[in-house]
Here is the input.
Amino acid sequence: MMLADDGHQVTVLERDPQPPPGPEQAWDSWARRGVNQFRLPHFLLARFRSVADAELPGLVDALAAAGAMRANPITRMPDDVTGGPWPGDDRFELVTARRPVVEAVVAGRAGATDGLTVRRGCPVGALRTDGGPGRSGRPVHVTGVVTEAGEAIAADLVIDCSGRRTGVPALLRAIGSAGPIEETHDSGFVYYGRHFRSDDGSLPRQVGPGLQAQGSVSTLTLPGDNGTWAVVVVTSGTDRALRALRRVDAWEQVVRAMPRIAHWLDGEPIDEVTTIANIEDVRRHYVPEGQPVATGIVPLADAWSCTNPSLGRGLSLGLAHAAALRSMLRQGALDEPGLLPGRWADATAASTGPYVDETLRFDGHRLAEIEAIIGGRSYEADDPVWSGYKSLVASGPATPELLRASLDVTMLFRTVGDVLADPDLGATVAGLENPGPVDGPDRSELLSIVGS
Ligand SMILES: Cc1cc2nc3c(=O)[nH]c(=O)nc-3n(C[C@H](O)[C@H](O)[C@H](O)COP(=O)(O)OP(=O)(O)OC[C@H]3O[C@@H](n4cnc5c(N)ncnc54)[C@H](O)[C@@H]3O)c2cc1C
Here is the structure.
């Protein structure tokens, strides 16, 4: 939509055949096999709303019109906690909804955008090239795609936005490119999530942050659209004992034993417990050591990089990444295709790279912490960014400044590294106590609840 608005002719080729139903039917009737987290809980951070307002005017209103929840976490807290309104607090405004609802709204607007054609049921099966991998030592140049049905489609630029399991690296290798260097490993987490609805459109009260470390599990409590919400229990993939959480009864008993979130069960369940495992952390390097593996093609959003989703960052980072692409193309990058991959790698590193780096770092620490708790050990890590994150985000709003710094981190406006480097705040954050355990079942109580 951003590129079409700038006058480019854009064709989106989507493998899944079913067109989007209206947002109100999307939850019940939209099959999106191409996105295996489609029915898992999602949350849109304030950064998503901020980029959407700047780049896609009208989208946020359309989401709200479909029943998405709009809120500003600052204005929902008492003045003695927030220090009253501060200039710039409006950056924390957010809009969020269940994933099928978000996607139906976005797809509806895409379908009505001039210069943009969405072809569904149209999988890409190959890449086109201009006749010679490696000719004169230059990288393969991609000139378009070939659909699985055999239709060749020419393009000045192919944007790979086919998600974290993209087939494009293999398609590049099939035309003689070495393909990107891929760093891929299982993030190590398993998600057990369930959605609920209230009968009067109200939402449960949030006590503490949406993401909470509760010993050897983490929990997510996520408001959604039209009086719906989701609760997720996240475990380590190695935690065989807690695989019982697939069972609704075990899942419910565990959530009920957690005083801060038990009341999030007080609604009508609108699905069973949905589980997802083997979620990869991925980063793809298209310009390793300064040499592009191909020209005429760029990776976007999850096809470039994705991380464990506990922090709810993927859609916001994807949209910010798209805005960076728009900005680069506005500066005439298409006129110099040989330089474009390097520029894109730089723009990616500057716009979304630091957030991905920190998310991967947090994932590694949290997983190690969970493993330590399961093994009856304590976890000490000599990493100021991890301790800064834990104390800033989990310890709650000690002062109005720290509250805003914490929201800047969770809502994706600043990294913890940025906060630690802030001359006014860094030393305070570095000196904060790490939070103690949240009230709730310890490891042996958890195991007894699930019957292990
Ligand atoms: C369990 C879980 C929970 C998450 N929760 C959150 C959250 O709370 N907040 C958040 O912001 N993010 C969350 N995310 C991350 C978010 O889902 C992703 O970051 C986001 O979907 C990435 O968007 P994308 O467009 O890059 O890829 P996708 O959404 O994966 O879309 C890729 C599309 O490409 C299509 N495709 C693939 N191959 C082809 C082909 N050969 N030809 C044509 N089409 C093809 C697929 O059908 C699909 O439609 C979560 C992820 C998971 C796994």
